[in-house]
Design brief:
By secondary structure, the protein is an alpha+beta fold. The chain has one domain: Endonuclease/exonuclease/phosphatase (Deoxyribonuclease I, Chain A). The chain contains three helices and nine strands.
């Protein structure tokens, strides 16, 4: 329980494993919803989740993964201009992710690959050609505590073939 609003704490959104030297945690961040009807709750979630990771990070390294339901930068989705104020690409959600990183975490993909473009983790199933046209979003991440970011060897997407929706992501890190 992280003190998230509404039913979010009861929706099974976080799994955290504790190892001797680090925490490994997985998240399924709430979507802001149709018409952004959950955006306010999502903003509270972002604060509570960032505080949760920061509290873990005080004890030992944190490696966090999952569907963060936000394309952080314009280069993290194929059509940023067409998606402004869409769930997953609002200024509020992007700022929430920025605030999370500022609490001591590194986006391992960007750390390793810099500002590479056209690499995504999700393609809309409703748009039948989204994967064929690579009209995707990067909303799935591997984050690591800043102090271990340089230990990352690989952070990449695994090709899931023609299947749309999320693709698996890989992190190889030498702890």
């Amino acid at each position: 329980m992280i003190g998230a609003p509404s039913t979010m704490d009861y929706e099974g959104r976080i799994i955290t494993l504790e190892f001797d030297d680090f925490f490994l945690t997985q998240v399924y961040t709430p979507n802001a919803g149709d018409g952004l009807n959950r955006l306010e709750e999502r903003q509270i979630w972002d604060i509570k989740y960032a505080d949760y990771l920061a509290s873990l990070d005080k004890d030992k390294y944190v490696i966090a993964t999952g569907d963060f339901n936000v394309a952080h930068k314009e280069i993290d989705l194929a059509h940023p201009n067409n998606n402004r104020n869409s769930a997953g690409f609002t200024d509020e959600e992007r700022q929430g992710f920025t605030n999370l990183l500022a609490k001591g975490f590194t986006d391992t993909f960007r750390y390793i690959h810099g500002d590479i473009t056209d690499v995504y983790t999700w393609w809309a199933q409703r748009a039948k050609t989204s994967k064929i046209n690579n009209s995707g979003w990067r909303i799935d991440y591997w984050l690591a505590s800043h102090r271990i970011a340089e230990k990352g060897i690989k952070s990449e997407m695994i090709d899931s073939g023609p299947r749309q929706d999320h693709t698996p992501i890989l992190l190889e890190i030498d702890l």
